Each structure stands twice: as structure tokens, then as C-alpha cells.
Amino acid sequence: MLLRKYGFNYKKRIRRKYKSNSIIKQTLLIIMLLSLISNFCISRLYLIREPIAIKSYDLEAIANFHIHNDVLVAIEDYAIEEEKDFYDVLVNTMIHYDFSALDEDIIDLNKVKKVKQNNEYEALVGLYQMILEDIRFFPIAYNLNSQYEEYYYGDTWLASRSYGGERLHYGTDIMDSNNTRGYLPIVSMTDGVVENIGWLEKGGYRIGVRAPSGAYFYYAHLYTYTGDINQGDTIKAGELLGFMGDSGYGEEGTIGMFDVHLHMGISVPLKHQSEEYWVNPYWILRYIEDNKINFWY
To answer: Domain named M23ase beta-sheet core: which ranges (predicted)?
Structure first.
């Protein structure tokens, strides 16, 4: 009886000791795992920035489109070389540099931190995609009869305008160097569908083309249209729309109120906004300027 008693007790002590050792080992294992997870998370903080909610994005800064054309080219080259998505690189770059990438000398794509992808991030990718995806050509055709560019333009975004009351300028004015109405041919920058055509008091004779990805391309102050273009017609990128003029600022047919130019506007539809949201076309035009349709004129 004593042997059985002591034997039983001895076995219990062994089981208790084994159980105690097992608990210690499990505890140590959990501590090690937690430590590894903690170190991993800390290291990731240097690689991934916290996402910015779409409601917190500075839409005004996005609309300014302060992305130097050389930076856009660099992003395009970098995305190809690193086999990354162009829009992912673009969005990460713009967030990293607070939506202002005008100084190409300080932009270092290798230092751009990756943003966690969520619904808001995807919305921003979609916004830039809507703006840029369908653009193929500069809106002024290249003149095969001339060795020189016969137009000029600057960044006239948000410049003051007074006709019809004090207001801001939501576009880029491309001027005819010779100030000759009906001379410079205007072509569509994108494929799309003619959404608006005809007279506007401020825009004169204009055409609005809705591109496949959703952006709206607005060509204003035309002198004449070309061919038989109607609302609902399908337009191809590079197709001739009309000729640069100085129409507008009055009743239909008004001309001569300002120098001959094309008002180029780009807008995008945004949720929770009843009107189109206009985007600065200037750096986009600089980016695409070498892509022109050839014309004899």
C-alpha cells in the first residue's frame, strides 16, 4: 500500500513538474512571438504611412495638379523599370510630398513611403486615373509648314476674371501667337463622346467631350467647328474638332472681346458634389505637349 501510495504521489509530482515546465515554455514562446510581431510592426512603420481618409484629402491641392511634367515622366519611367503600377507610384508620391511635386530636383522616388491601400486610397488612384488615362494628344495640331510653334501658354489656373462678375479661371489659355482667328486647328485630346456643343455666353462656341474613364475635356472660344459634329457623337483622339477663335462674352456670335486662344478645361465628377470638379490642365499639357497630330496648314 505504501509503495502504491508513494508511487502514485511520485507520478503526480512528475506530472505537475512536467505541466509546470510546459506552461513556462508556452509562456516563453508567446513572449517571443509577441516580441517578433512587435518588432515587425515597428519596422513596418518606416515603410508604410498611415492612410489618409478620403474626406481628409485636400481636394483643392489635388485640383491644383502641382506635378511637374518632368516628375510625371520620371514616375512613368520608374514604374516601368521597377515593374510597378504607374498610378500607385503617382499616388504614393503625391501623398509623400503633400500633393506638390513641382521641384523635380528634390523628388526622390526611392524615398517615397508606401501608403496602406484601402478604399480611400483606391478612390484617389481612381481620381488620377480618370484624369490621365485617356489623354493621347496635345490639343493643338503640329504645323508641318512651320518650323516654329505658333502658340504659347502659361499657368493661368485660378487667375482672376471679371466678365459676368469677379470669378476665378478654371483652365489653361493657349494663345495664338499671331492672334489670327480660324487658323490653329484644335483636336481632341482623348477618345470620347460629345456631351456638349454649341454656344455659351462665357465660353463662346465650345465642345465638351466625356472620355471613357470619366473626365470631361472642355474646348472653348472656338472660331468654327469642323464637319458635322453633334451631341452624342463618338470622337477619336486626334480628331479635328474646330479652329481656335475668340468667341464668347456676349450673345451668340460675339467675337473680338479678347485675344484668340483656346480655353482648355478638364473636370471630373465626384460623389457628393453636384457640379464637375475642375483640375488644372497646365502640367498635363506640358506632359503631353510632344504628342501632336500632324497637319498641313
So the answer is: 168-267
137 domain-assigned:
no
pLDDT, tens only, 82-121: 999 999 999 999 999 999 999 988 999 999 988 888 888 8
Q: Are residues 56 and 169 in the same domain?
A: no
Residues 2 and 56 in one domain: no
**Considering 71, 100, 132, which residue would you say is the last residue of a domain?**
132
Torsion of CA 109, 110, 116, 122, to 10 degrees: 30
Owning domain of residue 23: 1-46
pTM of the model: 0.80
**Spatial contact of 149 and 112, defined as CB atoms under 8 Å apart:** no
Number of domains in the chain: 3
The model's pLDDT over 237-259, given as tens digits with 9 standing for 90+, comes to: 999 999 999 999 999 999 999 99
Convert the pLDDT of each residue in 137-150 to its tens digit: 999 999 999 888 89
- State the residue for C-alpha cell 510597378: 84
